[in-house]
Amino acid sequence: MKTYSRRTFIAGSGMTAACAAHPLLALPSVSRSPFKVSVITDEISPDFDHACSVIANDFGLHWIELRAMWGKNLQELSDDQLTEAAKIIAKYRLQVTDIASPLFKVDWPGAPKSPYGSKEDLHGAEHTFKQQDEVLARSIELAKRFKTSKIRCFDFWRLDDVAPYRAAINAKLHEAAEICGKQNILLVLENEFACNTATGREAAKTLAGVPSPYFVLNWDPGNAVMRGEFDAFPAGWDALPKNRVHHCHVKNAVKDATGKVQWSPVGKGYIDWTAQFRALAKADYHDAVSLETHWHGGSSPEDSTRTSWAGMKQALIDSETF
């Protein structure tokens, strides 16, 4: 199968200068990292300007991932709001890793209704299967507008038995990837615990079933843990074709006192992020490692993200990838 190197799709030729770091969060230069160290902005605040300020000025980072802002999914923003968002990105000298779209986070037509997924998982976007072509077209438009070559997607709400529908689902994913490829864009599948591709092992099978060179993976070991793959790193990671991993979400999960798996700060949980970052570097990975906090144990979403960033930053430093 023909594959593309990550560098084929890396936008831009260099990093812009960092804004001054908060004195309590003094950092080494992020430009030395082999990764695009990033944060999903709405995990901090729906106030896009404030979220960007925290990421650029307090965290000292250059990259952001776009999903929602001002209480709306990116798909639903007006042209004026998108123009304002672009101005804010320029103001803080940030760049966009990808469009974190809700593409294919819907039920597969003709299959039993999935018992998984919820409105909370959609981050302000609600579309039917029939609207997915519109979501894809809109996502491509947004990718071009925000100068990124990646669009995130999912593998439809999880079915207890996906086997009867797997070939048709793969064909739909392949079709979407080829549409993206014609626009020099990668379609990046996230392994999502509420969807049919949830773990590293499942992701390896889906990638094998969708041989488009434009169809790649957003590796999320935290999501894999949520689906019960407690050895997501290293075993789930080891199952993956490394040349098809082009994005990585950073979060963590633990079992609580009752045995239920819950989100946790990045520095605590099943995923050894120091080892995972080392493994990414060893695989010659140069795309984003993007903080998707999810844990809400702090006093606010922003406070929770600051705690998780502290753990992520330490893991990057300990892995010598920062």
Outline type: globular
Helix content: 25-40%
Structural category: alpha/beta
Percentage of residues in strands:
15-25%
Q: Total number of helical segments?
A: 9
- Report the average pLDDT across residues: 91
C-alpha Rg, in Å? Answer: 18 Å
Read across the widest sheet, the strand sequence of neighbours is 1-2-5-6-7-8-9-12
**What is the number of beta strands?**
12
Quick one: biggest sheet?
8 strands, parallel, barrel
- Extract low-pLDDT stretches: 1-29
Distance between the termini: 33 Å
Summary keywords:
322 residues; 8-stranded parallel β-barrel; globular; disordered N terminus; 33% helix
Can you walk me through this structure?
The chain has 322 residues and is an alpha/beta fold. 33% of the residues lie in helices and 17% in strands. The chain has 9 helices and 12 strands. The strands form 3 sheets. An 8-stranded parallel beta barrel has the order 1-2-5-6-7-8-9-12, surrounded by 5 helices. A two-stranded antiparallel ribbon has the order 3-4. Strands 10-11 form a two-stranded antiparallel sheet. Helix 8 (273-282) packs across helix 9 (301-318). The longest helix has 18 residues, at 301-318. The radius of gyration is 18 Å and the shape is globular. The protein starts with 35 loop residues before the first strand and ends with a helix.
